[in-house]
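User: I'll paste a sequence; please echo it back and then give the predicted structure.

Assistant: Echoing your sequence first, then the prediction.
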Amino acid sequence: MISNRNILCIANPLWEGDYAKTIVELMSVFAQQNKVLYVDNPYTIKDVLVALKGKTPFPFARAFGLKPRLRKLPAGDSTFVYVLTPPVVLSINFLPRGMLYKTLLRLNGWLVRNSIRRSLATLDMRQDLINIVAFNPALGLVNKRKLKEKLLIYHCYDEINAALWLKKHGDWIEKEFMTIADAVVVTSQGLLEKKRDLCKACFLVKNAVNIELFSKGFNPEISAKKTIGYIGSIDDRLDYDMLEALIKRLPEAQFVFVGRVVYKKAEEILSKYPQVVFTGPKSVDQLPGLLHGFSLGIIPFVKNEFTQGIYPLKINEYLAAGLPVVTTHFSYLNDFEKVARIADTPQDFIEYVCEELASDSLEKKNQRLLTAKGNSWQQRVEEFSGIITQLETKANQAQA
C-alpha cells in the first residue's frame, strides 16, 4: 500500500449510513497509512425541504456551518478519516442541459471547492494530493484540476444510467469527466468493457469484503430450519416472478429481505406470503448477526445492460459467513464458479436453491470462507495503490 500520502475523496455516498459502500471500505484501509479527507455528497435545497417536513433526518447545524463541517471519525482499530460536510447547494438535476444548468453547476462546484480548500489547508494536505472522485462526475468535472491535485482518478462502481438520481445528466457529464481524469478505476468486468474506450486509462479493481467483520456471521451448524436471505436494496433489479416461484416451491422456508425498499411493488408482491420478512435497512455491524441465522444467500437479479456492470458486494459477504450462494447469471461471475451456483434460467435458480439447502456441509462452509479471504479490502487497496504508483511513474517519466 502507498503510505504517508494525502488522499482526497470527493464521494457520492455519505460516509455514514445503513449499508456497505465500496469507496468507504477502500478509504478505511487507505487511512491506515495515509491521511484521508472524505467529502460527502452535498445536500441540496430539496433535501432541506424534505427534512423540514420531518421525512428524513438531516444534519442542519453542520450543513449550514453552525457546527464544524470537518469531523474526525473512526475508520477501524486505531484508524480515522476526516469527513467533510459541504455547504448546502442548489437543486439543479431537474433542469435541462444548457447554459442555466451549467452555470448553476459551476456555482455548486465553487461552494464545495472552497469548503474543500479550507479543509485541505487546515489539515495540511495540499502537498502531492491524490484526488479520487467516487461516482460523482459532476463535482469532478466542475472542479477539474482546480484543487492542484497531482493525480485525478475517477472511481466508477455502477452504471450511471441505472442511477435514477443521476440519469438525466449523468451520462454526458461522466463521459466528459472521464476524458479529463488521469485514469478510471471500475469494479466489474462489465464496466471495464463499457468505459475503457472513453478514457486515457482504465483499470479493474473488484469489490471485496471486510473479512474480520463478516466472518463473525460464520455458523458451523447446519440448521434444520431453512432461512433464505437477501441483503441489499430491494429495487427493480430483482426478478420478482422468480422469487414468487421460489417461495411457492419452499413453503416451509423463511425468506428474509434485509435492506431499503426502494421499489414499492416489492412489498406488495412478496408481503402476501407469510414466510417473507422485510427487516428494513440495517447497519453494516448488524449484518453478520443476521447472516449467522441464514441457511443460504441469494442474488436474484434480472439480467440487463445495467446489472451487467455490477460486481455485488453481497456475494463475498455471504461467502465470508460460509453460506451457500445462488445467483442469477446477470454479470461476469466466473470467479465464483467453484463456490457459488450460477443460474442461467429461473428454473435453474430454484433447483440450485433446493439442492444447496439439502447438501450443505462444514467442509463447504470452510471452502467458501477461504475464497472470501482472498477477496479482502486490504488486497484491493494494494491493487489500487499499484495503479497510483504506475500512473505517477508514467507522469514523472513524461516530465523528465
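The CA atoms of residues 118 and 124 lie 10 Å apart. The chain has 15 helices and 14 strands.
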